[in-house]
From TrEMBL:
It holds the Pfam family Tannase. Keywords: Calcium, Disulfide bond, Hydrolase, Metal-binding, Serine esterase, Signal. The keyword Thylakoid does not apply. InterPro entries: AB_hydrolase_fold, Tannase/feruloyl_esterase. GO terms for molecular function: carboxylic ester hydrolase activity; metal ion binding. This is Feruloyl esterase. The keyword Transmembrane helix does not apply. It comes from Geodermatophilus aquaeductus. Gene3D superfamilies: alpha/beta hydrolase.
Length: 525
């Protein structure tokens, strides 16, 4: 049963978490010797005769390999659902001479279920790999409606969770046919939509994967996707579209005010945004290249950080954390008369038109707070179970021996990190801290944007840490991260943060300790 998100309280782990001196790589075990590659038991061309119920092989290619990828057999299949008429495309890439005995499912992003191009990286690493379009072609959200304007429920459900499960079962069957054996281990690797897909697998199909890597997961998809346009609604209703340089000034001021929060280091990154008490009102009167910041501007910014609220002030969803850029969701542009107007993220327009109003011509500018609230409630009611990966009961995945490694950038502008923390807090409450930490852990990366980027140290190899956890039995206490100029940092397991000891070079990750966060609760204000 799906559980509605609640305001997460201070994690019970934070009170007991001990400070541990860590260095990047310090908790990693020596790599085990890889077994000899497993060779196919059939020719690639024979997979054209592969049979499985409701499945058709549409293409088989024997790829010779090149400088980027090893020789491989590449199979495309169409999997149909006889119950609702839906169909998904599945791509499976199979190394000819370098298979490591493992399978990797790869996720999509945005409204894209996945792509064949994403399989080259796991192929290079020796994995048999697969992806799916999840029932529609390309990254556009227009698939929610058929060409005749009627809702395409089958495509919506395939995108929600059915398509990835169909892909997983089909791809594993292809792997078994080609190599004559099932993969020894199966892994999911995804970020954003791909992270949500991985959590869906763990929640609904707990036996599909031994390990799931879920980055920046869109856990509460209907809440997040509807809430993304909140800043535009606020600017519209206040008749105050804010130009980019005012937002940039606000972002820079927040980072300057809270730079040392969490990590104790001045580095242009907020180590713990949840402990940042920046006062936006101090910006009033600040002169920028696009005008002076006014009290009205600050009021808009405050509501963006607060997050979507109903007409009576009730909590709907979380807002933008301090240190995350406003750009992307809060852009404005000049209209034909030279006036500033809101310019929403195209994904938000697709969502409202093709999934909520079922009207491809719907004008978002007709929304006010009341109609926005109605759409928000409709989104949760219509898509909460179909697309929301928010069920905290992961006991079946735990009992199957699965491991879940989640990570999220604390400077993510698009998928607010508060939603991920909220989910983890509910898992802790559902299963207990001790049991949860044995199979599921969250890592929050300071200064890192959506699935990467930003001023913070970037994760080096979280997938490798997952594999070590699954196959080596060593749960990661930290993940390695590094900046472009070579500085290293440990990314600590929630609810701890990396804090500089004050001794040694702050660019050396070994000089940091994982300590309980000062304040990790989620705030409505």
């Amino acid at each position: 049963m799906r559980t509605r998100p609640h305001l997460a309280v201070l994690s019970v782990l934070a009170a007991t978490a001990a400070a541990v001196l860590v260095a990047p790589g310090a908790n990693a075990a020596p790599p085990a010797p890889e077994p000899a590659p497993v060779l196919p038991v059939m020719d690639c061309a024979e997979l054209a005769q592969f049979t499985r119920p409701d499945t058709t092989v549409t293409a088989v290619e024997q790829h010779r390999g090149d400088d980027a990828t090893p020789a491989s057999c590449r199979v495309t299949l169409r999997v149909e659902d006889p119950e609702d008429g839906g169909a998904v495309t599945v791509w499976v890439y199979l190394p000819e001479e370098t298979w490591n005995g493992r399978f990797q499912g790869v996720g999509g992003g945005g409204f894209s279920g996945g792509s064949a191009g994403s399989l080259e990286a796991p192929l290079r690493a020796g994995y048999a790999a697969a992806a799916t379009d999840a029932g529609h072609v390309g990254p556009s959200g227009t698939f929610g409606l058929r060409p005749d304007g009627t809702p395409d429920q089958a495509a919506r459900e395939d995108f929600g969770h059915e398509g990835v499960h169909d892909m997983t079962l089909t791809a594993k069957a292809v792997v078994a046919a080609y190599y004559g054996q099932q993969p020894a281990y199966s892994y999911w690797n995804g970020c954003s939509t791909g992270g949500r897909q991985g959590l869906m697998e763990a929640q609904r199909y707990p036996d599909d994967y031994d390990g799931v890597l879920a980055g920046a997961p869109v856990i509460n998809f209907p809440e997040m996707q509807t809430g993304q346009i909140w800043g535009q609604i606020v600017m519209l209703q206040e008749d105050n579209p804010i130009p980019a340089c005012k937002f940039e000034a606000a972002l820079a001021a927040a980072i300057a005010a809270c730079d040392t929060v969490g990590d104790g280091v001045v580095d242009g990154v907020i180590g713990d945004p949840f402990a940042c008490d920046f006062d936006l009102t101090t910006l009033v009167g600040t002169v920028t290249p696009c005008g002076t910041i006014t009290a009205e501007d600050v009021a808009v910014m405050q509501r963006i950080h607060e997050g979507p609220r109903g007409t009576d002030g009730r909590f709907l969803w979380y807002g933008l954390p301090y240190g995350a850029p406003y750009a992307g969701l809060h852009n404005v542009t000049l209209d034909e008369s030279g006036q500033l107007v809101g310019d929403p993220f195209v994904y938000d327009i697709w969502w409202i038109r093709y999934f909520l109003t079922d009207d491809p011509t719907f004008d978002w500018r007709t929304l006010d707070r009341a109609s926005f609230e109605a759409l928000f409630d409709l989104a949760v009611e219509r898509y909460g179970d179909m697309m929301g990966a928010s069920d905290p009961d992961l006991s079946a995945f735990r009992d199957s021996g699965g491991k879940l490694l989640m990570w999220h950038g604390l400077a993510d502008f698009g998928v607010t990190v508060r939603g991920t923390v909220d989910y983890v807090e509910r898992v802790l409450a559902e299963l207990g801290p001790g049991h949860t930490q044995q199979f599921a852990r969250l890592f929050l990366a300071p200064g890192v944007g959506h699935c990467g980027g930003g001023a913070g140290a970037q994760l080096v190899d979280p997938f490798g840490a997952l594999v070590e956890w699954v196959e080596g039995g060593r749960a990661p206490r930290t993940l390695d991260a590094a900046t472009a100029d070579g500085a290293t940092r440990p990314i600590c397991a929630y609810p701890t943060v990396a804090r500089w000891t004050g001794r040694g070079d702050a660019s050396d990750g070994s000089t940091y300790r994982c300590v309980p966060a000062t304040r990790m609760e989620l705030r409505q204000a």
